[in-house]
């Protein structure tokens, strides 16, 4: 209820925030699946996660992931003040007399502290992004130089910057970019995050996009964006990276393979197992390259075999051992099941890696523990 009121206040008083935060509008005739499924409860989940870790927020495992996502959406420090104001207003309206002056003050100070932690970390990330070879700050115009069907309802786009055709880009495999398009001509379409599927050091960037039913941005990209089209990109961000990893298990489902495939190419023989779940061969992105690159591969097609068991990660761990780093990407419930089953059999939480694109920042998410 607080979240709904908070969202209503944002839309009523700060419509321009739609260009940053993916908030559904009541005037939309069809609910945007990318909004409803990926971000409609994101802000509320962040607050819950912060409340659960208020005494040690700098050690919250999701802090870097959250800061990176904000950078990819070009969140600025003043946005936090707006969010702080409307969240407190929403709490006052919903909680009424239950929100005593003392409790309100405590929440206000805590939220401002959390904002300061994020602002400082995001500024550090921006500086790092700017210093990298080919780096920049904010959004930058890129032109589509190639588009290729990667699987059923999935398209890969190769992009080069309009302002420099020879720049080579440094980033870490497993990172993503924020992609911004203007669907309505009002500048109020929020960015969406897509994994980079090109290798570092090239003079281009590639993203691979799955068309989501009722997903406005993914539908536009897959159906409308052609060679010569222009999009805006943030620099690469994200902590789903394999720096210093000696042995790894990769587990993905659906379009989540776009996150783990770059790691497979980077780690090569250090990957003891690469497992992927998909509907069929036709929907399996990078299928042939995936099977050729991994020394040990397991593929589960649900169209033939049905859904895999919820503890599939634990079953795999009992086969390959517990002493590897795990990189998991797929639907949020799959990630939660996999991470939870690994924790239950004793895999170190620091060796379980995932990427946040949805509302996983909620109480009970297994990787929020410190």
UniProtKB/TrEMBL annotation:
Keywords: Detoxification, Heme, Iron, Metal-binding, NAD, NADP, Oxygen transport, Transport. Its cofactor is heme b. One of its GO terms (molecular function) is heme binding. InterPro entries: Cbr1-like_FAD-bd_dom, FAD-bd_FR_type, FNR_nucleotide-bd, Globin, Globin-like_sf, Globin/Proto, Riboflavin_synthase-like_b-brl. Its EC number is 1.14.12.17. It is an enzyme of class 1 (oxidoreductase). It comes from the Eukaryota. One of its GO terms (biological process) is nitric oxide catabolic process. Residues 137-243 form the FAD-binding FR-type domain. It catalyses: 2 nitric oxide + NADPH + 2 O2 = 2 nitrate + NADP(+) + H(+); 2 nitric oxide + NADH + 2 O2 = 2 nitrate + NAD(+) + H(+). Belongs to the globin family. In the C-terminal section; belongs to the flavoprotein pyridine nucleotide cytochrome reductase family. This is nitric oxide dioxygenase. The lineage of its organism: Eukaryota, Sar, Alveolata, Dinophyceae, Noctilucales.
